[in-house]
Each structure stands twice: as C-alpha cells, then as structure tokens.
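Propose amino acids for all 232 sites.
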C-alpha cells in the first residue's frame, strides 16, 4: 500500500509539473519556472526531483523553445535531478537516451557550470525496428523532438517519416493519446510526411480527446510551436 501511495504521489507530481510546462509554453511567460520549487522537507524534495526525472528534458522545454535563460532555482532543481538519477548499468536504451537528453539540455542552458553530455548512447535498436515499435520508442523519447536537435534518435526518425505517420494513425485509432501526441510532435520535425495524413487536424483531435492529460497537452503544445515556428 505504501508503494502504491508513493506511486500515486509521483504521478500527481509529474502531472503538476507537466501542467506548469504547458502553461509556460502557452503564455510565453519567460519568467515562469517550469521545474518545481525546492521543497521544505526531504520527502517532498525527493518527490519533486523524481518528477523532474520522469518528465526529463521537457521539464526545461519553455527555456529550450523560447530561447530564454531559466531561473537559477529552476536550473538548480533540474541539475539535482540529473545528478540524483543516473541510469544503471542494465538500463533500457530509452532510459539511457532520456538521461543523455537531460545532460545535453543542462549543458546547453548552463555551459559554464555543467559538463558536456556523455557520448551518445547506442541507437542501433531503432534501425530496422517495426514501425509500431519505432513509433512507441520515439513517443517515449519525444523530449528529443526539438528544432535543431541532431542525434542518432532524431536521424532515425528522419529516415522513416512514413512509418512514424503510420504509427501516429495507429495510436489515434487505439486511443493511445500519449503515444499519438509524442509521434505527432516528431512528425512536425520530419521531411516527407504524407500530406494526406492531415497532421494539423490530427493534432487537434488528439488534443480534443486527450488534452485533459497534461502529458498529452505538453506534447501537443510543443508540436504546435514547432509546426508554426512561433516561439514567443
């Protein structure tokens, strides 16, 4: 029961953090901290750091997309989350890449006080992956779907726009709104996406059906900003 309660608390913290990111993206309020403030007690602080780790590099998405420096406290919380949750030796590829994305983001936002990111993890598992698996993995790693990002995962997506489009349609049909939103975010960056997909209408539908979930709303907001090229 205690583990279940902790899991519920973490889910709530992640949802709250995602909501803050969405609000910052939609308002263009550059002074708004996306990451949670330092908590008063150790348990709450640990929960806040865990929430940042779950959301990953997207915790700093307003600074990334709006090209504005984060607040010092916001950056400090993000740095602590990066340092507190290094991936284990047997971590899954998506975990390795998520951590890499956080270190890369930290270095980009604070190059004078952060080491550069480690060497890119292996992305060979994406090469030749069935389109269903490819879409699922890209949705998990949607935090890497930012303009100008050049990494092995982004290149794998660039090589298979039709497969990602198929995965987007499949996710919508399965009502998997988180996967659909993540795939849609990638599609806004890819060349060669079939025009018959109707991506703009598809994103509208995903938001209508799943936008009450802050994690879905975050991905759709990022996708729209990338799609329109409007960075407040």
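Proposal:
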């Amino acid at each position: 029961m205690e583990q279940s309660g902790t899991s519920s608390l973490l889910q709530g913290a992640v949802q709250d953090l995602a909501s803050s990111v969405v609000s910052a993206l939609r308002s263009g309020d550059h002074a708004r901290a996306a990451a949670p403030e330092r908590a008063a007690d150790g348990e709450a602080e640990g929960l806040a750091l865990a929430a940042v780790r779950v959301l990953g590099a997207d915790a700093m998405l307003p600074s990334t997309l709006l090209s504005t420096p984060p607040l010092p406290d916001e950056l400090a919380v993000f740095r602590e989350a990066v340092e507190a949750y290094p991936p284990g030796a047997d971590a899954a590829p998506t975990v390795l890449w998520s951590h890499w994305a956080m270190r890369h983001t930290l270095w980009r936002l604070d190059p004078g006080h952060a080491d550069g990111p480690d060497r890119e993890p292996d992305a060979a598992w994406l090469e030749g992956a069935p389109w269903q698996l490819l879409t699922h993995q890209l949705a998990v790693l949607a935090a890497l779907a930012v303009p100008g990002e050049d990494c092995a995962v982004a290149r794998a997506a660039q090589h298979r726009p039709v497969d990602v489009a198929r995965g987007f349609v499949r996710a919508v049909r399965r009502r998997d709104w988180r996967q659909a939103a993540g795939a849609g975010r990638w599609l806004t960056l890819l060349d060669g996406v079939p025009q018959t997909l109707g991506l703009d209408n598809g994103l509208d539908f995903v938001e209508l059906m799943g936008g009450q979930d802050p994690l879905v709303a975050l991905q759709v907001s990022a996708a729209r900003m990338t799609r329109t090229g409007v960075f407040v």
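The mean pLDDT is 88. The radius of gyration is 17 Å.
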